């Protein structure tokens, strides 16, 4: 990892990342991979609370300002354990929020939190992630990881969204993607006390820049998502300072 951080040219960075992946694959294919302490490895790592997986992600910042992402997923399926490589295909995904993906077609990100929820007897692991995107834009991602057998799937239509008129859209999003200017920061976190995902609401710096994410930033208001009725339900204009209100928003969005 240190070689990757110190590399300057794109070719050197890719070589350092490949060497890192080889070393990590060797460690993850060892019998003690699920119990081994990886705390000294300078990568983003999340462990499923139920012991289902360990997920390692890292990024390669390129000279043009874009980022490539790498990931290795250690999966437990009954008595079997497997290592799955994730392949970043960000450049090929036209509308990432509406697309179900796989390990070979992954919307790369650095994950820093996992929130398990249950839907129809199935566990969905909601992931919060950071995504460097370009010289002028950074993104945050709310992803869903699930498994069919030992095969990972990314994305699930469980995110409630509203149209421009405030009506609930019939088709939910498979993941949430937030873009904003590289000079600002966006908070996206799991608040365990109120069992909700809280995040900065983003707005353009001028009205005529609506839809152009490099010109977006926090506008001092906060929104949230709460898991209920087998979906992540949107809550608008919540008071993020008050964690004792059981996640109830001040102003619920209009319903159909």
Number of domains: 1
Assembly status: single chain
Q: How many H/I helical runs?
A: 2
Q: Structural class of the secondary elements?
A: mainly beta
Cα(first) to Cα(last) distance is: 51 Å
- List how many beta strands DSSP finds: 14
Our estimate of the beta-strand percent is 35-45%
Secondary structure blueprint with pairings:
Layout: H1 2-6, H2 10-28, E1 44-47, E2 53-61, E3 67-77, E4 80-87, E5 101-102, E6 110-119, E7 122-132, E8 137-148, E9 151-154, E10 176-181, E11 188-191, E12 196-204, E13 216-228, E14 231-235
Antiparallel strand pairs: 1-2, 2-3, 3-4, 5-9, 6-7, 7-8, 8-9, 8-10, 11-12, 12-13, 13-14
Brief synopsis:
The protein is mainly β and 256 residues long.
How would you characterize this protein structure?
- With 256 residues, the chain is mainly beta.
- The chain has one domain (2-235).
- It has two helices and 14 strands; from the N terminus they run H-H-E-E-E-E-E-E-E-E-E-E-E-E-E-E.
- It has helices at residues 2-6, 10-28; strands at residues 44-47, 53-61, 67-77, 80-87, 101-102, 110-119, 122-132, 137-148, 151-154, 176-181, 188-191, 196-204, 216-228, 231-235.
- Strands 5, 6, 7, 8, 9 and 10 form a six-stranded antiparallel β-sheet that branches. It has a four-stranded antiparallel β-sheet with strand order 1-2-3-4, with helices on one face. Strands 11-12-13-14 form a four-stranded antiparallel β-sheet, with no helix packed on it.
- Strand 2 (53-61) and strand 3 form a beta hairpin.
- The longest helix is centred in the N-terminal third of the chain and has 19 residues, at 10-28.
- 30% of the residues are buried.
- Residues 243-256 have low confidence and may be disordered.
């Amino acid at each position: 990892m240190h070689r990757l951080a110190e590399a300057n040219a794109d070719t050197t960075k890719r070589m350092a990342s490949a060497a890192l992946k080889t070393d990590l694959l060797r460690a993850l294919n060892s019998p003690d991979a699920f119990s081994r302490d990886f705390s000294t490895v300078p990568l983003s790592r999340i462990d499923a609370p139920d012991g289902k997986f360990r997920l390692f992600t890292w990024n390669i910042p390129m000279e043009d300002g874009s980022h490539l992402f790498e990931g290795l997923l250690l999966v437990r399926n009954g008595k079997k354990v497997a290592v799955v490589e994730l392949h970043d295909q960000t450049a090929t995904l036209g509308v990432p929020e509406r697309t179900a993906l796989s390990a070979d077609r992954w919307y790369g990100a650095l994950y820093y939190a996992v929130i398990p929820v249950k839907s129809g007897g199935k566990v969905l692991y909601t992931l919060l992630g950071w995504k460097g995107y370009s010289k002028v834009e950074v993104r945050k991602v709310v992803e869903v990881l699930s498994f069919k057998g030992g095969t990972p799937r990314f994305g699930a239509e469980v995110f409630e969204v509203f149209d421009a008129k405030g009506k609930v859209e019939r088709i939910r999003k498979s993941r949430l993607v937030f873009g904003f200017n590289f000079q600002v920061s966006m908070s996206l976190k799991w608040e365990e006390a109120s069992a909700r995902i809280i995040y900065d609401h983003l707005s353009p710096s001028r009205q005529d820049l609506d839809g152009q994410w490099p010109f977006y930033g926090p506008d001092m208001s906060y929104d949230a998502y709460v898991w209920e009725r087998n979906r992540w339900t949107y809550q608008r204009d919540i008071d993020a300072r008050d964690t004792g209100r059981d996640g109830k928003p001040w102003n619920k969005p209009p319903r159909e």
